[in-house]
Amino acid sequence: MRARQLFGAWALAVLLTGCATLAPLVPQTYALRTAWPQGVAERVELASVPFYPQLDYQCGPAALATVLSASGVAVSPDALVDQVWLPARKGSLQVEMLAAPRTHGRVSYRLAPQYTDLLREVAAGNPVVVLQDVGAVFTQWHYAVVNGFDYATGSIYLRSGTEPRKEMSFTAFERSWLKGGYWAMVVLPPNRIAETADPTRWLESVLAVARTGDSETARQAYSAALRRWPDNLAAAIGLANQLHAMGALEDAARVLRATLQRHPQSVIAMNNLAQTLSDQGQHREALAQIERAMDAASPFASEVRATRQLILDRLQKVR
User: Fold this and answer.
1) What is the pLDDT of residues 193-205, one digit of tens each?
2) Assigned CATH class of 199-318
3) pTM value?
């Protein structure tokens, strides 16, 4: 039986080279030697993740095509070149890498700069795009996709360049990865959420999707967020806003009523429910709702007054 205390062959090699020397060079690998993340399998390889060989310097489109295809979007690197490839830089910037998946109905999320988060995502079935410096002497930025690891041998597996199964040691990988600030991202369909997602940062990613005008993708993403974090006010308001924009006023009102059950002091929920009720023609109920919001001190007081005036104007016309 392999004992955890042996750390695996790779960790033993780390120890033999001298802990004091390696710790500052590869701090996260050093930490993993005794603190493997709880609940994460020791060996994972996502063999079904597609492989697109890199052409010239176009590692960005190849990496994006890999994770988009893994998420269910049939797309080739060539189709992504115009979205992320910057000829003057002979590469792709991180902002373009994060933005492009949103145009394909996917949520892109930047991971926290932690080895453990990368491992957790891969163990959850999510291939991870990483930014590496692979230059032997001078800096050479490169995007690759991590699709596996092996604790016993200390190996990371990547779809990289022209190699469908590039194997790197934990230490070598971290040295290449840390130079870019441990930058990493996942791309997921809107009904799924990253394993390591922080609710605030995840909802910022969903908001970025909503701003593209893709209401249905945003609706699915907000619905998924609300299922995972039922008490999250931003997720509830976001979902109601998308439903309202799609003309599903009854559903929007239902979400807002449930939100006020959980957050009875939310002026935003009061205001939006009043607006939605008025849009349904239920002006008197809307007025009673907005009066509640008027009584609450809030930085949204001007919006509340505008909604109240709108409701009063509609009531006047009805009369």
Assistant:
1) 999 999 999 999 9
2) mainly alpha
3) 0.89
